[in-house]
Design goal:
alpha/beta; Arc Repressor Mutant, subunit A; disordered N terminus; 2 domains; EC 5.6.2.2; globular; Dna Topoisomerase Vi A Subunit, Chain: A, domain 2; Spo11/TopoVI_A; 371 residues
Length: 371
């Protein structure tokens, strides 16, 4: 049965690659025809967004529908010729990757022609444009992240990755790297009761050292800060296939809050793919601004919000999805901004070193103290 699934997966991947290669050829052909017919080459790109800043929440933001189009037109825009040259060069590299069934990182692609690309950010932006142009996700282009050691999972989970069996269940407090290529994952089995996503590796390691998963049937994941594509795709895959509740544990500061919204609503940078990576089921377990008083944490644990923190929090308050879909999250963010202070997950250690793993997390989940 597993072999049959692998064959089906390989066949679907081949079909997808063939479709993308045909789309690349069609796109280039259309540009050549424009030039041959004396027309200025022009490229139309759909533009997506995960939120707007409508103060009344009366927006039409959608994860499936573009809100505008952007045109790259030589002759009308000073930088259009260079941008189109970069797009075509990156397309030629991606075409080669698909033809040879090879994978590369964005950094690999940059070093294929650094004189043309100038900066890594240029390549990153163009790859997003190509995803929009070809109506696909980045992994379909065989552009992946090879450094997966920072993306960790532990707990009551077992799955196959290519020909290997990853059995976290054997020792649920031992970390394992999150798979980079989700297409290689199959036969996922779990007896967990929930998924816990933690912002930082230090907190992940604290839970591992405290043998948290021995006492709690769960799966713990960290993307070490802002989550990258493999972390978000893997989490989405877990939630869809295991049908488990998922909780987020982040610092009580604007950056922790932003990380949490990235998991739940997606990032603006990859808004075109948000519908495939966002996890709308995500619940905010902690640490909440209101937790400080509820758990009587000492004042020495508080840090003042910096001017940059305040600007970030104020900007996030206007996001339409907080008004429409997460008003309780918005209330907590308002409280943080009003009090002008922040604190980290590790502040709970002021009560006791084991308070986070033995009291805070299990008690809040048991009592439904999440939003």
């Amino acid at each position: 049965m597993a072999g049959r699934r692998s064959c089906m997966s390989a066949a679907m991947e081949t079909q997808s690659q063939s479709r993308l290669l045909a789309s690349v050829r069609g796109f280039v052909r259309s540009l050549v025809e424009d030039i041959c017919n004396g027309r200025s080459p022009s490229v139309a790109l759909d533009r997506y967004r995960t939120f707007c800043s409508d103060p009344f929440g009366n927006c039409a933001c959608s994860f499936d529908t573009p809100f505008a189009k952007e045109f790259i037109s030589i002759g009308r825009q000073p930088q259009a010729a260079h941008r189109l040259a970069v797009l075509l060069r990156v397309l030629s590299i991606i075409q080669l990757l698909l033809q040879q069934n090879k994978h590369a990182s964005k950094r690999d692609i940059f070093y294929m022609d650094p004189a043309l690309f100038v900066d890594q950010a240029v390549v990153d932006h163009i790859i997003n444009d190509i995803c929009v142009l070809l109506r696909c996700s980045r992994h379909h282009l065989n552009v992946v992240i090879f450094d997966s050691l920072s993306l960790l999972v532990m707990g009551w989970l077992r799955f196959k990755e290519s020909d290997r069996t990853i059995s976290c269940i054997k020792n649920p407090n031992t970390e394992h790297p999150i798979p980079v290529c989700l297409e290689d994952v199959e036969d996922m089995v779990s007896v967990a009761q929930y998924i816990l996503v933690v912002e930082k590796e230090t907190v992940f390691q604290r839970l591992a050292n405290d043998k948290f998963c021995d006492r709690n049937r769960c799966i713990v994941i960290t993307g070490r800060g802002y989550p990258d594509v493999p972390t978000r795709r893997f989490l989405r895959h877990l939630v869809e296939h295991l049908r488990l509740p998922v909780y987020g544990l982040v610092d009580s500061d604007p950056y922790g809050f932003d990380i949490l919204t990235t998991y739940r609503f997606g990032s603006m940078q990859m808004a075109y793919d948000a519908k495939l990576m966002r996890v709308p089921e995500m619940r905010w377990l902690g640490v909440l601004p209101s937790d400080f008083e509820e758990f009587n944490l000492p004042d020495r644990c508080l840090l003042n919000l910096t001017p940059e923190d305040k600007r970030k929090a104020e900007a996030m308050l206007s996001r339409c999805y907080l008004i429409k879909d997460a008003p309780q999250w918005r209330t907590e963010l308002e409280m943080m901004l009003h009090k002008g202070v922040k604190f980290e997950i590790e502040a709970l250690s002021a009560i006791s070193f084991a308070f986070l793993s033995e009291v805070y997390i299990p008690t809040k989940i048991e009592r439904g103290k999440h939003i």
